[in-house]
Amino acid sequence: xxxxxxxxxxxxxxxxxxxxxxxxxxxxxxxxxxxxxxxxxxxxxxxxxxxxxxxxxxxxxxxxxxxxxxxxxxxxxxx
Length: 79
Known about the structure:
single chain
């Protein structure tokens, strides 16, 4: 799994852009689409590298987001 973590650049001077992440390129292939984790930070989960990287590159090149990408296994828990 691939987890894309993004943080809005200049969020104190700009309007909240987290809701607009639903339109990010590649996010339609996410297993879990962007969800706010804290303030102006959000995460999305992908099961393949290509759409995760596509989304990361689109957001990073916009200049509006700091982006990080992690890879590893995820344990599923039933609630």
